Amino acid sequence: xxxxxxxxxxxxxxxxxxxxxxxxxxxxxxxxxxxxxxxxxxxxxxxxxxxxxxxxxxxxxxxxxxxxxxxxxxxxxxxxxxxxxxxxxxxxxxxxxxxxxxxxxxxxxxxxxxxxxxxxxxxxxxxxxxxxxxxxxxxxxxxxxxxxxxxxxxxxxxxxxxxxxxxxxxxxxxxxxxxxxxxxxxxxxxxxxxxxxxxxxxxxxxxxxxxxxxxxxxxxxxxxxxxxxxxxxxxxxxxxxxxxxxxxxxxxxxxxxxxxxxxxxxxxxxxxxxxxxxxxxxxxxxxxxx
Length: 290
Hints:
Blueprint: E1 14-22, E2 26-30, E3 35-42, E4 45-49, E5 52-56, E6 60-64, E7 70-74, E8 80-87, H1 89-98, H2 100-111, E9 118-120, H3 123-142, H4 148-167, H5 179-197, H6 205-212, H7 216-227, H8 231-249, H9 254-260, H10 266-277, H11 281-289
Antiparallel strand pairs: 1-8, 2-7, 3-6, 3-8, 4-5, 4-7, 6-9
């Protein structure tokens, strides 16, 4: 598999990966802070969001809301090529203060429960979008590092304006979220942020409950209802994905990778990894090195 190394999302206000190429099957599910924009250049598979499954094919354009669980599965060969942009809430805050009209036009997408999030673009629109992504790639290659975040912010302004005017069709009738739904969304975000900040460390549900000031049962129930899986399963999925990246990009020992990704026992890590990826960590690394 070709791994596209970009600026780490955990440490920056954005992550941009242009035309990443995958020659091995891709399958993951997760949620994260910030808005995610995914564009498929080549490849076919499925994408699950809002408890619905959509076909994934060339010129598919997807926007994922903050802390929204999403799943992707792509079978290759022949190849999977995609462009990915993630932008943190701080970028979205700039929209509100600098361009209030654009922020207002885009706000319904973030606030409504179920607007369309998966789009199959016609050739002219897809070509224009790909050109915009290419321009961002070229811009980031020539500007100084301290200006790159501003370049991504400006690009996001133009992209969202294009999305609102050329791609997005507001639903005819959308009921506003209830206060309870908003409250649970905020709590869900806090849970995901808490897990992400401690993904490399073992933790218990009681640890989380003490920090977030909710009962363990309430946290567990809220997460399960909104995400469709347990907190433990979600945390393990995040850890396994990080472990997979370390296996491909480093020469760290299996035991060390297990420790760094928050697994207390290497044997448990190996069993979970094999169940997810169909091979032990050692064999998976050997396969990727061929």
